[in-house]
Amino acid sequence: MLQKIGHQLRHKTRVLVVGTTPDYIDLIRKACPERTLFLTDPEVRHNAWQQSPREHEEMLCHLEDKEEVLSRLLSHLDRWGDCIDGVACFDCESLALASFLAQRFSVPYPSPEAVNNCRNKYISKIIWQNNHIRCPKVKSIKSMEESLSAFNEFGGELVLKPLSASGSELIFRCKNEEDCIKAFDAIQKGIRHRETHMLYMGASCGSPDIIAEEFIDAPEFSCDFLLEENTARIIRLSYKIPSKRGPFGTIMGYALADSLTNGLSPSELSLCLAKSASALGLKRAICMTDFMIKDREIIFLEITPRPGGDCLPSLLLSAYHLDILSLTLDFAQMCPIQLDRPNTEQQFVGLRIHAEHGGILRTLNTEHISQDPRIREIVLCRKKGDTIKMPPADYESFLLGHIIFNPSEKADIEDECNWLMDKVLIEIEAI
Fold it and tell me: What region, left, alpha or beta, does residue 385 occupy, with left being phi > 0 and alpha being psi -120 to 50 degrees?
């Protein structure tokens, strides 16, 4: 009887957070205690250094089998007397599962079809082309010969990438035919090595595993926005600072911006965002998009129904006092969303700390810059003794943390990023 009463007292509605990482779980629990139920892979929890949530707050479950996940989830909810009134997801590999579960619990979330359109980098670009939305030319690649054919078709330079990867993972710029051969081989090997990873599962039947895109040399931007009723409200706009220390596509940092360099107004950008997201089948979502600007035109690279991750939540919290993780929970529960930015003339930059080679991390020390007045926050995600692997073997472990800072007035932001990176003491022992 006491156990039953205890369950009744704990009964409440919760947002189901699907497949996120322990650092996000820790932040969400602190900001929104007793509001969520986390669905977490056991291996992810086993490798975490953060304190585990209480038993009723987190369900550990392998996430590959959707029906098995649903069955275990229903049992968990029944045990604790809770129910789900929203679904949130912060990681690309779990979006399909989040959509499946949202349908079963009849709560708002992008449809499985829309999620697949976003995750499938070939389908998304074909849809955009059919709707007269500018994006890179794209071609499906099933053989080495087809990659060489695409290289010549696209004018002698292209980008090869997996169908459904995330960020810069297994993405290669090919400047000649030899690059194409090496890149195609590296992607095939990388996909085989990751074949059980959820990020590479669930692609549409018959779609190519590798795609070729035309290479476009232009500044790249990133944006978070709310999509509701065919209207996009911009949460964050930033331009990307490319890294010269990592593989192609690696971003050194993000600088928040109020407007675009091509003179497009925020309202015009919102119209473009709404059109491109709606074309993919999205109706109501928090979205992240990457795009380029060339000849005063927006060229869309990707839209995915989740907020931007990595250093971006910290950047938004420092600059706008906006907790994007809590906002995502509010959105999942259909709460009204206010997007009022504080007035500030200061610029904010999120600088990512990357290792330059692999091995055993022996030292990661930021005390030389900790008292620098430009620094707002330093977050380290690796510790002494961690094994660091480099791309293409691993695109996660070589990220060591990030720094949020205010660049000096009229300074070259890339130069300041490099100066700060040079002051971070990193010692890695080769294996």
Answer: left
